[in-house]
Design goal:
One of its GO terms (biological process) is regulation of DNA-templated transcription. Helix 8 packs across helix 9. The mean pLDDT is about 90. Helices cover about 50% and strands about 15% of the residues. By secondary structure, it is of the alpha/beta class. A 6-stranded parallel sheet has the order 2-1-3-4-5-6, sandwiched between helices. Strand 4, helix 4 and strand 5 form a beta-alpha-beta unit.
């Protein structure tokens, strides 16, 4: 039996995915949660074989969760399921050790087969995205990305500093570095461009 932890913030989709996977005789959803921090706690508790996660979630994103799993060397394989057909996301996912990257509009049987393949040690990557992933490189550092994501949510530099436990000046530096690297006029344009490219 392949034991799966499901992390998806949309309640209806989370329920549908859990029900779909539960219909497969060799797949078992051991827990289904709606945010990254809850997923991290359930990973410790259940020690599943696979984590099936969305990218955009409250708390930790799916990619930050994959990075944390890699840092702690947990023996769980990560499969991302997302609406974001963006090469930048895929590139970052692969760098974080993700073994599968599928789009939410893929057929249900393709998802089950991809999970089995990853469990056996293979990869399951959307082929068109795989070709695009090695185009334009992501210029942002992790800290610039975090600051820019929070700026895009409407937080001021002072609020970002408080959230990330950094000084106000350091946050201003990260934001201005990101703006410079992306060649735009302000933090909102930087946020929009980085999001469009899949770098957030």
């Amino acid at each position: 039996m392949i034991r799966i932890l499901l992390a998806e913030d949309q309640t209806m989709l989370r329920g549908a995915l859990a029900a779909l996977l539960g219909m497969e005789s060799d797949l078992e959803v051991v827990a289904a949660v709606g945010d990254g921090e809850a997923a991290w706690r359930e990973l410790q508790r259940h020690r599943p074989d696979l984590l099936l996660t969305d990218i955009e979630m409250p708390g930790l994103t799916g990619l930050e969760l994959a990075q944390r799993i890699a840092r702690h060397e947990l023996p769980v394989k990560v499969v991302v399921i997302t609406t974001f057909a963006r090469a930048g996301y895929l590139r970052r996912a692969l760098e974080a050790g993700v073994r599968g990257y599928l789009l939410k509009d893929a057929p249900a049987e393709q998802l089950a087969q991809a999970l089995r393949n990853v469990h056996r040690g293979g990869r399951a990557i959307d082929p068109q995205l795989a070709l695009e992933a090695w185009g334009e490189a992501d210029p942002l550092s992790d800290r610039e990305r975090q600051a820019l994501r929070l700026a895009g949510e409407g937080l001021s530099a002072a609020e970002i500093a408080q959230r990330l436990n950094l000084s106000h000046g350091t946050v201003r530096n990260y934001l201005s570095e990101a703006i410079g690297k992306l060649g735009v006029g302000n933090r909102i344009e930087a946020y929009r461009l980085a999001r469009q490219k899949g770098w957030l």
